[in-house]
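Anyone able to model this chain together with magnesium ion?
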Amino acid sequence: MEEKTIREHIESNINTASSPSELKITDMRITNIDGAPKHCPLIKIYTNQGIVGYGEVRDASSATYALMLKSRILNENPCNVDKIFRRVKQFGGHSRQGGGVSGVEVALMDIAGKAWGVPCWQMLGGKFRDKVRVYCDTDVDGKHTGADMGRALKKRMEAGYTFLKMDLGIELMLDEPGCLNAPLGFLEDIKKYSAKALAHQKGSIDYDMMMGKNYETFTIPHYATGIHITEKGLDYLENYVKEVRDIIGYEVPLAIDHFGHVCIEDCIRFARRIEKYNISWMEDVAPWQYTEHFAKIAHATTIPICTGEDIYLHDNFEPLMKAGGVSVVHPDTLTVGGMLEMKKLGDLCDKYGVAMAIHMAESPIGFMAALHCAAAVQNVLAVEYHSSDVAWWNDLALGIENPVIKNGFATVPNKPGLGIDALNEELIAEHIHKKYPGQWEPTDEWNKEWANDRTWS
Ligand SMILES: [Mg+2]
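re: yes, here you go
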């Protein structure tokens, strides 16, 4: 072999990931897919050594939240996760606005893990468990009974799930005479403009349903709708929960989400009615910012109260914990600020004696990020899963277990980074979001984005 060929041969077999101190970020690109179960903006961060990190903006969000960070992270060493996080943290916000910073942080953790040869959970301090319990969010489209929901949940149990959550909202009573009252005409507005959004999985995340009057109606906060539940309405809801428990039994945990936009006082009346059905938690009974609303309901019922999927940064959970407003927090890795923020939130949970369940309605990238966090945070009850009815979801990422969830649990991987070898590009091509076409196309227009980023003078 000639000397040059020998050298090329040797160099081609060197793991260039063994030079992490020389790593530099060279590019960030995105692809928007749809239906997994929602719109998922996927992120790739590229480096000068061929290592690519995978991230994702929060479900039903915009890739812009990530792309606006690109110029701020180019040429940085991606292994300096905390340093880069602090550089871009100011561009994140609550709910979907936190998705850019969080998605970039996850991609950096993936790169750092691959470069140094360790799983993300190891970088978070090691793991507390080898398998993570998964709960499967369950909703039944359109008008239905508690027995219908009970049967849907029973199917989850038969598939191996050991923790359940259902949607139960006041929209079920929009056509039930005498169950709800509201400023006259408003319930008709709800039916006309937002019932569809309220009543099915893709509602609040469908672009067309969330414009104009639809948006205005849907975003009136709980305390301001003027909707009240009558005693007949409470009977209706209680009977729904009873029918569910009659089918699934009392041994399995059952949480409730998406109750609807009614004032906290009516949430309390409902909560007291269903205490005897052993509810694991009631979720997002008010906008999370209203600490006093949460404290009020938490002090008035024995049902554990939960919120958090829209809270950015771990320290924003503290007022709720301090006020005794939550027994369970429900962060999304892709809103809270990423994996290190999840770990810090876990410490805050320890301080206040609060449990954690992890919100997750994203692609396998988001799931793997949540899984590593759930392994590394002590008091995690379970991770949410929204895609059991999406046949192709498991095939999006290569190199992970397939299916990712077996008998209601996910195995924590021992591979470097998130544990994903590659994405299934052919499958991604089949599910590109029609409104946002393109697959990992150049994003050079974001290389020059700049402002004086100092937040003080
Ligand atoms: Mg929720």
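The chain has a mean pLDDT of 93.
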